[in-house]
Write a structure and sequence with these properties.
The complex is a heterodimer of chains A (289) and B (434). Chain A has 289 residues and is mostly helical. Chain A is built from 14 helices and two strands, in the order αββααααααααααααα. Chain B is built from 21 helices and 13 strands. In chain B, the strands form three sheets. In chain B, strands 1, 2, 3, 4, 7, 12 and 13 form a seven-stranded mixed beta sheet that branches. Chain B has a four-stranded mixed beta sheet with strand order 9-10-8-11. In chain B, α2 links the parallel β2 and β3. The chains are: A mainly alpha (289), B alpha/beta (434).
C-alpha cells in the first residue's frame, strides 16, 4: 500500500478500534435488540420485527409526551442557552472592574455536577420551604407548584438546566469575541454604525466559528438530556416531564423491556442524525466556499 | 528516519496491546480462582464479599459488618449504598451487564422475584432445610421470600404500613385515632379545618402516595376483590370499587389533605411537615420509628394506628438479603454467614437501638427507645395482611398505576378513565408476556 495512505490509516487505527469497540458495536447491537422482545437476561429473545417501534408510536402515550418534551427542550436550549450565553459573553467582554470575578461566577455552575444542581433547584422550587415560593408569598402572591404542575414543571426544570449549562457556551463566545480584531470595531465606529448595527454586521458574523461549536454541542446535549429530569421530577408528575432518554431508561431498566428501550434509543439516534447531519453538511459546504 | 519512527510506533503499539492483555494475569496473580487473596506462601488471606445496601440502612449494615469482620477477620464486607429507587435500578443494570455484587438488599414480590426468575440469586431451599429456618424465622417472612419457586433470600425484616400521627396535634384538636374508615374521614376533615395538612406524602417515584391509594382499593374492593385486582384476575376497567377508590383519592387530593405540590416531592422530604407540626400523619413502615431517633425527634410524640379499611388487613412486605448465584462457593458461604449473623438473636439483642424492627427472626425484642414498637407489632400480628402494591403488580403495570394516581390528582383523568388506563396497561403487559 502507498505509504501516504498507509501512514494516516495506521495512526488512525487505534482510535478507530476504540470507537468500534465502545460505540459502533454496542450501537449496532442495540439496533439488533430493537427488533426483539427481550427482558435483558433471558436466554430467549423473541423476534418481533418492527413491532417495538410500532408499539412506541401507536400504543405508548408516554412516548409521544417524551418526544414532544425532547423537541421542546432542543428548541428552548438552542434559543435560550445560545442567546443567554451570547448576552453574558458580550457583557463580560467589556472592560470593567471585577470582570474576571464575574466571568468565574457565571461559569461556575457549569463545573457543578448535574445531580447537585438538581437537588439545589429542587429545594429552591420546594412548594412549602422553597425560596421562590417564599418570595412570592412575601410580595403577596400565591405560591406555585413549580414542579408538580404539569403546565410549568418542564419549564421549571429547564430554567435550572439553563442556569447550569450557560457557562460553557459563554466561554466559547468570549474566546470568539477576543479573537475579533479591534480595528474592525474602530472602522465601523468611524463609519457611524451604532452598537446594534455593530453587533449584527460585525460581531455575530465573526463569531460564526463559535456559533458552530455552541449550536452543535447544545443541540446534542439537549437531545440526550436525562440527569436533571431524572433527579428533579423522575419524569413526573404523571409522566409529563419524561424525555426520550429518560423514557428509554425506564423501559430498559425498570420494565426490563430491552427491545423497546433499544428501539427508543434508535429513534433518538435517528432524530439527532436528521437534525445534525444537514447542519454539519451545510457548515462544511460553507467553510469550503 | 520517518520509516524508523513508524516501525518504533508500531512496536510500541503492539507492546502496549500485549501489556494490556497480560495485565489481567498480572493483576490476578494475588488471587486464586475463587476470588480469594493469597499471599506468596499460598496462605489464605481474605474473602471479599461485595454488598449493595439501601442508603437508609447502610449505617446499620456497616456497624454490623464491622462486628462480623471482627469475629471473622478472614472475611471483608465491601459495601455500597444507593437510595431506594436507584438501588432497584442499579441491581437491574448490574444483572443485565453481569456485574451484580455478591450480596444485595432487596424487597420481595415483583421487585425481588426478577432475580430468582432469571437465575441470578442463590436458592436457599436446601440451606433453609438443613439449618431449620422454619424454627428461626417467622413463617410469613419465609413465605414472602419464596419467589420464582425458590427460597430467594435471607429474610431480614417483615414490615407493615400504618399511620404514624402527632399525638400533640390529635390532643389539641380533640381527635381520637380512628377505628373505621368513616371515622378516619372525619379526622382528615377536622385536621384540615384547623389548618393542618392531614397526611404528608412525597409523590416522586409514585410509591409513597401509592400506600394511601392501595388502602382505598382495599376499602372499596374488599380483601378478595383487592387480591384479585392485584393478581390481574379481575378487570380494573369499569370496576366500581376501583372507580370509587380513584374518586375518593381525587376528593382527598382536591380537599388538600396532602401537602401542596406533593406529586413531585421526594418521599424522603415527606417527614419535614410532620416534624414541623404542619402535618399530622404519615403512612409509613416500622422503619419510621428508627428514623425518628436518627433525626433526633421525640418518639413519645408519635402514635400509631393501621389505616382503617374495614377489612382488618394491612399492607405488608418483606426485606431480605439475596446472594449472587454466580459468586464463588466460599464467597457465597461468607455472604450467607454474614446474613445469618445479622439475623441472629444475639446480634439483634446487642444492636437493638440500631437494627429497628420488626425483625423476621422469631422472638426478636424491640428497643425501649421505640415506644410505638409494641403497638405496631401487635397490630401486625392481630391484623391480616396484603402484599404492598409495588411488589404485587408487575413493574410495567405499576408505572400505569402511578400515572393514573397522578393524573386523577391533577384532574387530567376521571376515575373511570384512570381505571380503564390501568387496565390498558395490564392488557399490554399480558400481550407482551404471551
Amino acid at each position: 500500500m502507498n505509504n501516504r495512505i498507509a501512514k494516516p490509516v495506521l495512526y488512525l487505527l487505534p482510535a478507530l478500534l476504540v470507537l468500534c469497540v465502545v460505540i459502533a458495536v454496542p450501537s449496532l447491537y442495540s439496533l439488533y435488540l430493537s427488533f426483539f422482545s427481550w427482558n435483558g437476561v433471558s436466554p430467549n429473545k423473541i423476534f418481533v420485527g418492527v413491532q417495538n417501534y410500532i408499539d412506541l408510536f401507536m400504543r405508548d402515550p408516554v412516548f409521544t409526551i417524551a418526544l414532544k418534551n425532547t423537541i421542546f427542550w432542543v428548541i428552548a436550549s438552542l434559543i435560550f442557552i445560545t442567546v443567554a450565553a451570547l448576552f453574558l459573553a458580550l457583557l463580560l467582554n467589556r472592560p470593567f472592574f471585577g470582570r474576571i470575578v464575574f466571568r468565574g461566577i457565571f461559569y461556575s455552575p457549569y463545573i457543578m455536577s448535574g445531580i447537585v444542581v438538581s437537588l439545589m433547584w429542587s429545594w429552591l422550587y420546594h412548594p412549602s420551604m422553597g425560596f421562590f415560593n417564599a418570595v412570592l408569598e412575601q410580595i403577596g402572591l400565591e405560591p406555585l407548584d413549580w414542579l408538580a404542575d404539569p403546565s410549568m414543571a418542564l419549564g421549571s426544570v429547564f430554567v435550572a438546566s439553563l442556569w447550569h449549562s450557560v457557562g460553557a457556551p459563554m466561554v466559547l463566545f468570549l474566546a470568539g469575541l477576543q479573537a475579533i480584531p479591534k480595528d474592525l470595531y474602530e472602522a465601523v465606529k468611524v463609519e457611524g454604525a451604532n452598537s446594534f448595527q455593530t453587533l449584527i454586521h460585525v460581531t455575530i458574523p465573526l463569531l460564526r466559528e463559535s456559533f458552530v461549536v455552541v449550536i452543535a454541542t447544545t443541540l446534542i446535549g439537549a437531545m440526550k438530556v436525562f440527569d436533571i429530569i431524572y433527579a428533579m421530577t423522575g419524569g413526573g408528575p404523571a409522566q409529563k416531564t419524561q424525555v426520550l432518554a429518560s423514557w428509554m431508561y425506564y423501559h430498559t431498566f425498570q420494565f426490563n423491556n430491552f427491545g423497546t428501550g433499544s428501539a427508543l434509543s434508535w429513534i433518538l439516534v435517528i432524530l439527532v442524525m436528521i437534525v445534525t447531519i444537514p447542519y454539519v453538511l451545510q457548515l462544511s459546504r460553507d467553510s469550503h466556499t | 528516519m520517518r520509516r524508523t519512527s513508524l516501525v518504533i510506533l508500531i512496536l510500541l503499539l503492539v507492546a502496549s496491546v500485549l501489556a494490556a492483555c497480560g495485565g489481567g494475569a498480572e493483576q490476578g496473580a494475588g488471587q486464586d480462582e475463587q476470588g480469594q487473596n493469597r499471599s506468596s506462601n499460598g496462605k489464605q488471606e481474605k474473602t471479599t464479599v461485595t454488598f449493595w445496601a439501601v442508603s437508609a440502612d447502610e449505617p446499620v449494615f456497616r456497624a454490623l459488618a464491622d462486628q462480623f469482620t471482627e469475629q471473622n477477620p478472614n472475611i471483608e464486607i465491601k459495601m455500597t449504598g444507593h437510595a431506594s429507587d436507584p438501588h432497584k435500578e442499579a441491581l437491574k443494570v448490574a444483572a443485565a451487564s453481569g456485574t451484580l455484587p455478591d450480596m444485595w438488599f432487596n424487597w420481595g414480590g415483583t421487585l425481588g422475584s426478577y432475580f430468582p426468575e432469571n437465575g441470578f440469586s442463590y436458592d436457599f431451599k436446601q440451606h433453609a432445610e438443613d439449618n431449620q429456618w422454619g424454627d428461626k424465622y417467622i413463617g410469613s417472612s419465609l413465605e414472602l421470600v419464596e419467589l420464582g419457586g425458590q427460597v430467594s433470600g435471607v429474610p431480614w425484616k417483615v414490615s407493615a404500613l400504618g399511620f404514624y400521627f402527632r399525638k400533640d396535634l390529635f390532643e389539641k384538636y380533640d381527635i381520637e385515632p380512628p377505628a373505621t374508615f368513616e371515622e378516619f374521614e372525619q379526622v382528615l376533615q377536622k385536621l384540615k379545618e384547623n389548618g393542618i395538612t392531614p397526611i404528608t406524602t412525597g409523590g416522586k417515584g409514585g410509591w409513597h402516595p401509592m400506600r394511601i391509594m392501595e388502602g382505598l382499593i382495599e376499602y372499596y374492593a374488599g380483601a378478595e376483590g383487592h387480591d384479585q385486582l392485584m393478581a390481574l384476575e379481575q378487570s380494573w376497567e369499569g370496576n366500581q370499587a376501583v372507580i370509587d377508590a380513584y374518586a375518593k383519592w381525587k376528593e382527598w387530593s382536591d380537599k388538600g389533605y396532602f401537602p401542596k405540590g406533593f406529586l413531585t416531592l421526594d418521599p424522603l422530604e415527606a417527614k419535614f411537615p410532620l416534624f414541623k407540626g404542619d402535618a399530622a400523619m404519615i403512612l409509613d413502615s416500622p422503619g419510621f420509628n428508627k428514623l425518628l431517633i436518627d433525626d433526633e425527634q421525640d418518639p413519645e410524640l408519635y402514635g400509631f394506628f393501621p389505616m382503617p379499611t374495614n377489612t382488618d388487613r394491612i399492607s405488608s412486605y418483606v426485606v431480605m438479603l439475596q446472594i449472587n448465584k454466580s459468586s464463588e462457593k466460599d464467597v457465597q458461604d461468607a455472604a450467607i454467614a454474614f446474613a445469618e449473623f445479622i439475623t441472629s438473636p444475639e446480634v439483634i439483642q446487642e444492636n437493638l437501638d440500631i437494627v429497628g424492627f420488626p425483625q423476621a427472626r422469631i422472638g426478636s425484642p424491640i428497643s425501649e427507645k421505640m415506644p410505638i414498637g409494641s403497638t405496631v407489632v401487635e397490630t401486625m400480628s392481630s391484623n391480616g395482611a396484603f402484599l404492598i402494591t409495588d411488589q404485587a403488580l408487575p413493574q410495567e403495570v405499576l408505572q400505569k398505576f402511578f400515572q393514573a394516581q397522578d393524573d386523577v390528582s391533577l384532574q387530567r383523568m376521571t376515575p373511570e378513565e384512570a381505571a380503564a388506563f390501568v387496565q390498558e396497561g395490564i392488557n399490554n403487559y399480558k400481550d407482551r408476556m404471551k
